[in-house]
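Subject: Sanity check before I submit

Could someone independently write out the structure tokens for this chain? I want to compare against mine line by line before I put it in a report. The sequence has 91 residues.
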Amino acid sequence: MPELLDRLVKQLKAKGYSAKSAHAIAVTQLQKSGNLKKGSIKATTKGKKRGKMTPAERAKNREIKYSKSKRKPSAYKYNKKTNRATLKKGK
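---
Independent answer below. Compare away.
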């Protein structure tokens, strides 16, 4: 099973979903985002690349994408409790 899928299933189970529900939700969302191939649990090139990233790297990458900034990942601080990255003060 791809690393991203494992991690998402664990997160959903920790939130109280059954193993079956967590797996179904994770597969659907990862296929929708292009990390898994449609109709399977095989990782796409994007999914393999993101699967090798740490949670902090993925969060910083998401923040750069959403903010459309030209800042480097080092300009962001990762909060593992919220799984979000925020701009460091003074950057």
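---
OP: Matches mine. For the report I'm noting this point. The beta strands are 76-79, 84-87.
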